[in-house]
Amino acid sequence: MNIDPLTRHGAQAGFTPVASDMVFDAEHERPRLIAALEPLCPDIRAIMSGLRQAVPVAPNAAAGVTGQFYRLPGHFRSVCCVVPDTPRAEELWNGDVIAFKGTEPLMPDFDEYLQWMMTAPFRGSDLPMGLHFPLMVNVPPGMVPLDECVREERMAAAVHERHLTVYGELAHAPVPLFVHRCASAVTTRYVDTLARHLTPQAFERVEQRAGAGCGVSIWYYPTAPIRVDDLRVLAATNPQLRVAADEGEETITRWCRLFARMLQLGFMPYAPWNQGRGSCVDAGNACIDGGFADLLMLVPFESIPDDRWFRRSLLASAQMLSHTVSMLTVSLGPRPAERPDPSLDPLSQVFLRPRLLEAILAETPAGLAPDARVVSCFALERFEDLVSASRADGLPHAPYRAGGFAA
After folding, report:
1. Which domain holds residue 130?
2. Whether residue 213 sits in one domain with residue 183
3. Burial of 239 per CB tally in 10 Å (0-12, 13-18, 19+)
4. Confidence (pTM)
């Protein structure tokens, strides 16, 4: 009997198979995606067949390599399995992967892991990781709520299907495969663990959402999903992962192309009301191969209230991507800097804006005109255009009056 590569890799790595309960299955619900993915990963249907039986779970959440699996430093909720057999560890970064997001509550040492999160620093936050997520963004630490898994998979699937229709290929982003619903006993144990370790205020913030269910989302990505924030950590210890200047130029070109395509497909990378919740274009999600991870916070154009908010969201998205370019820049070289020079962000904006405009024009399908609202944010040629933009404030600020707006 032939065993699919992922099941074999899991057994060889000593991962525990946990019986699957899939509430989203892309092969059944989004068959176009799997048909488009099959030429890139010929084993994908066999892999998915194996995953319908069981999800492989690591014995712990330590960063590092175990057989064909690895957890990158800073990937506190995800672990990857390299699909092709890779005899040498340094070659793992080149293989396509199946990524598992949210398996941590299934691990036997999760109590110890959450205890560690209560003291571990998180990027620039003043709070430890275990408190930052519940208190700052109302997210339970060390798990992915089932509802978040479902929303993210649906958003990603919508992006890929529109991308297939317009551009004839999958987007350079994770492809959704499954959402697994953890058993109720797992959720109960997770909530009990939270209650023991979190402060009362933090626990109250996330108790209801955590109790609604733990989930695991499963994805395909064409190479190692190394984010810009990961690069500074990895480059210090792994010379193979350093990025040269010409490679950085190609990465930025790919980011601009994907940014432009998302706009063309009707998705805004970031909106101000998602502040603190991240974006696919920030340094925590933009990957050094030119792709974007975590599409959950994309904002469909139709949900943006008016042109004023559209412009604010687009400019904020571009500014966030330019900061990511700054962080990539300071990550280059043998000794990556901790933070950019204060002048680097403005310089990155100057560097990025014409490239974004070029990509927006180039990625507009033949026979169509680019969205004038998009172009106006990157190509203000006359003072008159700036004056017009200043007046595009939508409806006047006036008190409510029954039957209409006050004069």
Report:
1. 18-221
2. yes
3. exposed
4. 0.92
